[in-house]
Amino acid sequence: MASSTILFRVSNTNTSTALSFPSTVSNAIPCRTFRLPISNRRRTFTVQSKIREIFMPALSSTMTEGKIVSWIKSEGDVLSKGESVVVVESDKADMDVETFYDGILAAIVVGEGETASVGAPIGILAESEAEIAEAKAKATAASSSSSSSPPAPPPAPAAAPVVVSSSPSPPSPPPPPASDGPRKIVATPHAKKLAKQHKIDINSVVGTGPFGRITPEDVEKKAGIAPKPKVVSAQVVAAAPTAAAKPAASPLPEIPGASVVPFTTMQAAVSKNMVESLSVPTFRVGYPVTTDALDKLYEKVKPKGVTMTALLAKAAAMTLVQHPVVNATCKDGKSFTYNSNINIAVAVAINGGLITPVLQDADKLDLYLLSQKWKELVEKARAKQLQPHEYNSGTFTLSNLGMFGVDRFDALLPPGQGAIMAVGASKPTVLADVDGFFSVKSKMLVNVTADHRIIYGADLAAFLQTFAKIVENPESLTL
């Protein structure tokens, strides 16, 4: 009968003991007992208690630090794996942070309202009550190390003054050897003029310039005139250390009565993104769109919960299907990245900041489901409960200020996207047709800002023409 061999390896030894067991089990086969003489001494196994740190998590790809909004649990509370412990404000939303282990919240390192870098300890978790004292000591050490400011760097050594030496310049190259025959005199026009002014025979001057050319300095030397100091070179030498150590721009003068309010985490993230957007070469194209048919459709579907923003997002998504380059991105400055999904990010103003919830696969959702999804996203955004994939997965952004009566505006391109559309208000406009007859129609002006590395003027013009056709014939939006 075939048998299977099982190897048991005992830790801290180099001995492996092999046992052979029959591969099948039968009641008819008597069982034999094997005793393994592994060691004559008894082995004791000790399980050490664990003290774990609760770290500040990275709740988004752009998050570098987080702010503690509130602690759900207090010191001494017993925690279970998967239970929410603390609410953290990221750069876009407030999110509950769960614990991955069972234990006791022994100490809170970062209190409510304070910030901590991603990966920094914000709390200490003890496995049992016996380790609480040790955990508190560890928390005290962690908080003291984080609160203590690093030593100030030593002051930079003062720049040594530039000494302009009055020593003579390096010796000039020797003049070419004189020949027995007549030599050709080569002199600069200025040198000839100086020789004439000082009544110097130009033939008697030895040139020190290239190939024996007579320079103005040679004529002045022959006339016994002291050479003038090279002011320009001195200025260059003096300006070199200034350029190397360019002082920081002087701060703006303070206005009496003004107060300084630091950015919130969200406002700091918006500021960082807007500065990054300035490094992308962008251009803008505007296009007027007639909205009479869209306005009629909106009045029809408005009782069903459909908003104008949802209509515009749906129209933009359907347009991007026909113009995928406008849905593309340029991440490395060397290639196109064509996105297979059309995710429309829509700018929403919330208390203390700006966020762009994303309608994922907007081209595949019908208008009513899209409107319902948009309503849920807005509610979560204003409650600061959006998940990272609900605000950082956009491929095209829509910003609508028409509801505030804004005629037109330009939007800054968000980092990582190829284009953003700015929609103004729809207003009655007097138009003249080809026959000279006047009529009044509602028009809105749409401006698109695009990354010129991947999207060109013709691409954007074709995109806007298609968008206008869909808006002016909006029946397809409800299909």
From TrEMBL:
Phylogenetic placement of the source organism = Eukaryota, Viridiplantae, Streptophyta, Embryophyta, Tracheophyta
Gene Ontology annotations of biological process type: pyruvate decarboxylation to acetyl-CoA
What organism does the UniProt record list as the source? Dillenia turbinata
**Gene3D superfamilies for this protein:** 2.40.50.100, Chloramphenicol acetyltransferase-like domain, E3-binding domain
State the family named in the UniProt similarity comment for this chain: Belongs to the 2-oxoacid dehydrogenase family.
Domain named Lipoyl-binding is located at: 51-126
What name goes with this protein?
A: Dihydrolipoamide acetyltransferase component of pyruvate dehydrogenase complex
Which Pfam families does the record associate with it?
2-oxoacid_dh (PF00198), Biotin_lipoyl (PF00364), E3_binding (PF02817)
Enzyme Commission code: 2.3.1.-
Entry-linked PROSITE patterns:
BIOTINYL_LIPOYL, LIPOYL, PSBD
